[in-house]
Amino acid sequence: VMSVQCYHFETRHVKTKDKDGHVHHHHETVRVDTYSGSEEFSYQSWRDISGNFMLDTSEAMRAENKAFVTLDLTYDIQFANDGTDSDFERKYRHFRHHNKRDT
Hints:
Radius of gyration: 25 Å
Helix content: 10-25%
Strand content: 35-45%
């Protein structure tokens, strides 16, 4: 899925009263989302080039009171043929061109 989120930041003046009736002024910066869009890219074949997954639990097993192992996985895939790669690049450029909506 290709996705885009357009936003900008605004600085706002905020006025509040405390329990004694005193007025306090401050500024806050907030993110304002102005547009979001997404588009699926369908493909039939791909190739996983991540490499082998090796899990070393020896350190976790030695630690006291650990009943679980935390995994941090990354992966890398590539299109299995040049036609799919070219189609993706074309659709990606089209998606970017038609979703430039930042203000």
